[in-house]
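Methods: example folding runs. The two proteins below were folded one after another, and each record is reproduced exactly as written to the output file, sequence line first and structure-token line second.
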Amino acid sequence: MGLLKRGDGGAVDAEIERLSALPLRDLAAKLLPHVSAFELKVGVYGPNEFELARMLTPSKPSAEQSLQLAPIIAEGLQVLEHAGLVRLNWRSGGGTGIEYPLTRAGEAALADGNVMGRLRDVAG
């Protein structure tokens, strides 16, 4: 997943449908490792919902598909934020917008395999 190949809109649509059907805690748990992978790849800060959309889909989503995915992913990120596993950060300089870097608690949850335990008490 996450390879930036083009031309398989049906597979992306299927992934949009699958992600939108997940309970919010499950969606959040699926996102957290991708937040970490993004930080390791880029070396700074965290991803935004559009960057995560590219990572979660089997091929590069179209602009329309990205706009469908963004609010779904944003809901999962909000659950992670409420659990203290990521934090909202305003990006400036090389691009503007919101990003979601891991917190120390997010790093610990990934390290000890207890992401769902940390999400247990969060509404969703």
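Second run, written to the same file directly after the first:
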Amino acid sequence: MALRLAVLVAAVVPSVAVAQAWFVRGGVTARGEFNDNYFLTSTGKQSAFTASVTPFVTAAQQTQTTDVTAVLAVGLNRVWGPSPTTDYVSGLLGLRGAISDERSTWTGAVSFSRAPSLQNAQTPAGVVLVRAYTNAASVNGTYSYALTERWSVGATAGWYGNSYSAVESGSASSLSDNSGYNVGAVLSYRATERTDVVASAVFWRYSSDITRADAVVPTLGVVHEFSPQLTVSGAVAGYWSDIETKQTAFVCPTSPILCSTGIVQPMLVFSGDQRHDSGPLFGGSVNYAFSQRTQLYASLSQTLAPGSTGGITRTGFVGASLLHRFSDRLTGRLGASYGSTRFPAGLSNWYTDKFYQGEIGASFQLAEYWALDVGYRYMRAAYADNPSEPSSNIVFISVAYNWPGASPTDWLGARGGREIRPGAGPILLPARREPPTSPESPPERSRFDAFPLQ
């Protein structure tokens, strides 16, 4: 029934062009995924098969002064394997836009997503990844004013909110909803036709039921286009943060597993107690086109990020992906990444969890409006709190009808470019971006690649 409804929506809202160059598309994706360790546990592993049907509508408009991209999708999902069989609804709302005149540019983005994802949670075994239904919302905006041909100034502001609920009923994990905002100023300088320099200073607020944190992050970034095939960017930053507890409780002054085993005694932290931290942040990326068919993207970063355990975290990421178009219809993808999350412990210490991921897959254009995605992903976690290193293997296949991008799948290469947080390096370096592509551009350059459905 759900599939029939989705196809009906796709038929009613085909690819159409309306007034002022609006392009609207309706379509549907269907996906099957097998995960041999759905909850990413080291013992009592549970495999799961998830079937999903996701109808969507996309829209885009481009004029001399405006550029708008929008996606709305609602997914109907069923999971077999863990008892009992569960149904859930996923969703995605994405909107990006820009308005410009001779000297000024306004840009904005609104997003909301709901999906079951792996989140850090406090458990009796320490801080580990658990699968949770995650609702993530954000609103961001920037303004830029060109003082001269080389200098421009601007401002940025944003808000975010995250809420979680454990998928596994009766779970002893503790997840903390959080929200916050950021405001900042940006100064940009075009040094040459190939080199841009961007400096920013951002104030960031994080709040949960457990802590409240304020951070100031100044950042300096450079992007240089060595050739039409090679672009390299880099950014360095520092941060100063104050974290204030909102509850009186016993906490472990080091890795929680040492307290749970009795090696270290918990300490009493009172509501209003503060800790002060500072340190470096950084980021960089390399985008190299070996040819018109082969492209390499690599990035690294260390950022401040909102944590689902109730406090801010320092998150590191190193990743690389290779895309090769074997033919006009077949594209292959290969990627690998390493991530780390540093959690504050007590009033002065930190502990670190690490994560590894690899993926391989392909996209095949079955027909003019039909595309097939297949892939395999491997993930492994190494916890500071737990000597076990759980891993999972995921195999999936999906079919998309009328999707305007290269692929509706959340491939690593597209994902790395979106994981940029305001003021926490790497910073966005907008002056060197390519001119916006048209709504009906080739799939490998589609604006909709920033909105994966799966």
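Comment on the second run: Residues 2-450 form a domain with the Porin fold (CATH 2.40.160).
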